[in-house]
Design a protein that fits this description.
Oligomer: single chain
Number of helices: 11
Bound molecules: S-adenosylmethionine, 6-(5-methyl-2-OXO-imidazolidin-4-yl)-hexanoic acid, iron/sulfur cluster
Amino acid sequence: MSSTQIRHDWQVEEVLALYGLPFNDLLFQAQTIHRENFNPNEVQVSSLLSIKTGSCSEDCGYCPQSARYDSGLKPEPLMPICDVLQAAQQAKDNGATRFCMGAAWRKPKDSDIERVVEMVQGVKALGMETCVTLGMLTDSQTERLKEGGLDYYNHNLDTSEDYYSEVITTRTYQDRIDTLDRVRNAGINVCCGGIVGMGESDVDRANLLLQLANMPQHPESVPVNMLVQVEGTPLMGTEQLDPLMFVRTIAVARIMMPKSRVRLSAGRNEMSDEMQALCFLAGANSIFYGDKLLTTDNPMTNRDLALFARLGLKSAGSSYA
Ligand code: SAM
Ligand code: DTB
Ligand code: SF4
């Protein structure tokens, strides 16, 4: 009998019960569901580029790009399209199948959207899937991105609704849900997840996954980020999360959203190969690849290639290949 069930009616007690399973039982359950839905040895590979860096008006307590904190980051305006396409070609040559472009905006202007649409079209012409993360969107901006051919929009819930105001005060949880609804209704694939290791409780982690899984449709991509602590940001110095709690979060996400790509996202540079192997065993099947995330370090491509070889992992082909 199949263990896979697509549900949208999770209760927090059930999620906490999954988290509370003996580690081996949790990983067995997650890997069983993983194998029913995916090739367990394939990992989808995306590369990130910060197309507009720093000077952001928001106060997200984890983020080095907020203008409110002194992280020492040099702000950069929206990049010229030719430079973006050059970076995308390089990412493709290195083996990435999706190119994700991130901008440090609360929300884009309509004129920004036109420039981003040109980037999306240029990247698609290279034969890659496209993803952008630009902050909050209006209906017409979302439609414009869809018309322009955008494949995925990344917009994270970041944490539970209860813990949210400890981390961000300049926009609400509902603002995020509204943008996610627009993206879903426009027919763009949804990339939505969060960050753990921000000092949240077990119940907060369970509630974040519950919010994601109880959406009317599961996000196609669920990034699980481990907080990257950056000097100058308010969350610098937060007590480190038990790494095995991170692995449990991946496993519970896999069980709750069986057909979604669960992305082992920020924080890999600080993880051992063994820890990443446990995350793949728990059901993570996509990563960010390339030496940089948006502004912080990601593992060097050589280290990732060696890790894939050690684990016998292969890059999942792009749907455009
Ligand atoms: N400005 C847009 C927004 O906030 O939606 C898009 C870019 S923003 C940098 C994208 C996501 O990166 C955030 O929602 C957050 O989940 C993640 N992120 C940012 N800084 C991080 C950090 N230090 N550690 C882990 N994840 C981080
Ligand atoms: C996501 O969930 N993680 C990525 C991507 N979506 C845009 C971003 C991680 C950013 C980490 C901090 C930085 O490099 O600036
Ligand atoms: Fe700005 Fe996005 Fe960073 Fe928040 S996460 S400060 S909105 S760039």
